[in-house]
Q: What sequence folds into this?
């Protein structure tokens, strides 16, 4: 599995592919709202390629469907805290399975939350005692298609009221809403042509 190693620790047995790569560019979505977390998506460009990857590394496709994935089990991974009460961070990449809930369920939950905004560009997931937590933000929520095949990312860890609460689902940016923008920023296809002159 993936581990976090300290470069200062001479006893670390780092993976042969381990290297620090800086971030050359960060592009926030132009409509990102810091107060409501609407449009909570960014694209980071690394300073260098990362050609060396462990053999168990798999590419994850972006969800581009209109599917809402209601009641599907999805996996969230991250380096965030394992307890909201104790801000300690794991040395291993953690993963947990959560159940994607319906838009109506999510909207109903967050209608009770003063200052919370939940809209169609988000999805929520909940399982008792299972959730993303502090510092997991930006990590993927993904699932595998029925019948096998490559995983695809349906969400990006965004915000929550409490970690692993039975009352409050975790909220994720809905990737399908932003897939074209992500691909454009990543240079996977050219920007649309300018409008014709008047």
A:
């Amino acid at each position: 599995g993936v581990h976090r190693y300290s470069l200062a620790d001479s006893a670390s047995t780092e993976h042969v592919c381990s290297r620090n790569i800086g971030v050359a560019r960060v592009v926030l979505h132009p409509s990102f709202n810091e107060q409501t977390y609407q449009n909570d998506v960014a694209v980071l460009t690394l300073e260098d390629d990362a050609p060396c990857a462990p053999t168990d590394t798999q590419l994850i496709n972006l969800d581009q469907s209109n599917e809402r994935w209601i009641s599907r089990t999805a996996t969230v991974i991250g380096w965030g805290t394992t307890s909201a009460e104790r801000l300690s961070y794991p040395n291993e990449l953690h993963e947990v399975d959560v159940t994607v809930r319906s838009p109506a369920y999510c909207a109903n939950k967050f209608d009770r939350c003063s200052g919370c905004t939940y809209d169609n560009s988000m999805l929520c997931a909940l399982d008792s005692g299972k959730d993303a937590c502090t510092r997991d933000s930006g990590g993927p929520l993904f699932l595998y298609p029925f019948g096998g095949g490559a995983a695809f990312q349906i969400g990006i860890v965004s915000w929550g009221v409490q970690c692993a609460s039975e009352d409050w689902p975790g909220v994720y940016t809905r990737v399908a809403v932003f897939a074209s923008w992500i691909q454009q920023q990543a240079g996977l296809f050219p920007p649309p042509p300018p409008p014709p002159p008047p």
